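Chapter summary example.
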Amino acid sequence: MPARAFSTVRLVNGSIGDPVLYLDYPGADNALLFDGGENHALTTQQLADLEAVFVTHHHVDHFIGLDRIIRANIDRDKTLHVFGPVNTIQKVYDRIRSYEYPFFPFQKIAVQVHELDGGVERTAILECTKRFPPPQVTERPWDGRVCYENDSLCVEAVPVDHTVPCLAFALAEKPGHHPDPDKLAAGALRPSGWVAEVLRLLRTNADPSTELDIQGGRFRLAALAEAYFAHSPGARVAYITDTFFSDALRPQLVKLAKGAWRLYCDSFYARKEAKSAAQHRHMMAHQAAELATAARVEQLVLIHFSQRYAGRYDVLLDEAREGFPRVTAEVG
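The structure predicted for these 332 residues follows.
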């Protein structure tokens, strides 16, 4: 199993609340959020660390937290990326413009919204310094796979089958050097901006004898690499929710989740609710297990349980474990 670079991976509301997945990396403001539902369990600082938000669809339980995300970042001088299905640009703009702002000079947030619609990506930048004028939309072809990429990872997206336009996502870390969260937690140096600088030097094959001044000390690059970093092929995390599991969609979902360290998967219904699953376009727990087996994932985390199973969520866990043994859920 490849080492994982993220220091935090948190299913914010567990398996029974709004599906929200938060991932953070040590030493930089580069957290990622999958889905924009209720997020009060995250601090304002955690939300202010966000680099990108990936919204599956615009139902209230996946979108209501956008206001708090914008509020946490409004005073930042940064670009916050927001990805979602068709109509995301207008919906994000409408939410932002529903409030009045003082427009202080230090409020420099720019929200770059990306709308993935079939083979097209539409983009608009909503800028606070320009008082959030109506979005100017640009368009380019999109091959239906990678939607976001930085030096450390890429995020893939595929359209899924829900009652409204909806996406599923997977994060794939790139091979190479990554911060090792366990080493950083045990080490003498506090994670901060030096982590990103060391990572940059390692990835550009800098001289191992290069010295850096960090927190009052001087350290060689080689020693820092040994003490705080790992070389890894990278880990994969898949996030799939609110979709019907059809024969037509199955190959795309298997490809998206292939080899994932962890698959967070919609498990709204038990097997006997097949009619409701088809009507409301959700997966059943045993189908999440089928997907996990076909994709050969390490762990399956069941999410988005229907409230009809309150007090008896073991029904869903038991059905999933019949097909895949390494299943968990967060219901406590």
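To summarize the output: The chain has a mean pLDDT of 94.
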